[in-house]
Design a protein that fits this description.
With about 260 residues, the protein is an alpha/beta fold. The chain has one domain: 3-Layer(aba) Sandwich (Rossmann fold). Helix content is about 45%, strand content about 15%. Helix 2 links the parallel strand 2 and strand 3.
Length: about 260
């Protein structure tokens, strides 16, 4: 493999990578030559996905490290374990996020709002701070935040989540300005409705998903692997002139 999407020799850390978009991204990064650190809250889930990747792409392709994104010390251990195994981190994919509240923003409790901002914004800031110095030193690296089209829209149900995802856009823009002179790129991906556990209640209901798909130009829900393709693009030389951007992958719904 020697094309624009070749990730041979690269090391990637992917949070929330035991299911959904994160899992698909980890598999596609490995398929394109990268070694991948698999991380989520549950150790057994991380080990299961790492074993699958090793079985498909070769022993030693994946590393399993459980690390809740709300725990800064656990994230430091994730970064340290990845460096101990492979000596470097070239790609960071901040995919893990949470949304413990559904309802009008006016009714959210302070504790719930803080949890959303901590998990969806502050944890990304922490991780970027942990991996960026070595990327700056090498003058090479790609940081990818999985945001959402929710960050571009209002909502009377997931308003706080949307606020956090809009903040991720600005986090990427700011870090792109700071690290761009050092050859490090920082971008967001903004998925639309994807077939993940987060949206299960919608896509498992035939009537609700039919109504939702009528508003999408492509007339269907997205698949995790379609977002993983955007991750590979941003991680590889194919995206080498792209930084500070929010790449919308939504079947056209926001147009």
């Amino acid at each position: 493999m020697n094309g624009l999407f070749d990730l041979s020799g690269k090391v990637a850390v992917v949070t929330g990578s035991t299911k959904g978009i994160g899992r698909a991204a980890a598999f596609e990064l490995a398929r394109h030559g990268a070694r991948v650190a698999i991380s989520s809250r549950r150790k057994d889930a991380c080990e299961a996905v790492a074993a699958e990747i090793d079985a498909e792409f070769g022993e030693g392709t994946a590393l399993a490290v459980a690390a809740p994104i709300s725990d800064k010390a656990a994230l430091e251990r994730l970064v340290a374990a990845t460096r101990e195994r492979w000596g470097r981190i070239d790609v960071l994919v901040c995919n893990a996020a949470s949304n413990p509240y559904y309802g009008p923003l006016a009714g959210i409790a302070d504790e719930q709002f803080r949890k959303i901002l901590d998990n969806n914004v502050l944890s990304n800031h922490w991780l970027i701070g942990m991996v960026a110095p070595e990327m700056v030193e090498r003058r090479s690296g790609s940081i990818i935040i999985v945001s959402s089209i929710g960050g571009l829209r209002g909502s009377n149900v997931i308003g706080a989540y949307n606020v956090s995802k809009a903040a991720d856009f600005q986090l990427a823009r700011n870090y792109a300005v700071e690290y761009g002179p050092h050859g490090v790129r920082v971008n967001c991906i903004a998925p639309g409705l994807i077939r993940t556990d987060f949206a299960r209640a919608l896509w498992e209901d035939p009537e609700r998903i039919r109504a939702a798909n009528e508003r999408v130009p492509l007339r269907r829900i997205g698949e995790p692997r379609e977002i993983a393709g955007a991750v590979v693009y941003l991680a590889s030389d194919a995206g080498s002139f792209m930084t500070g951007q929010a790449m919308v992958v939504d079947g056209g719904v926001t147009i």
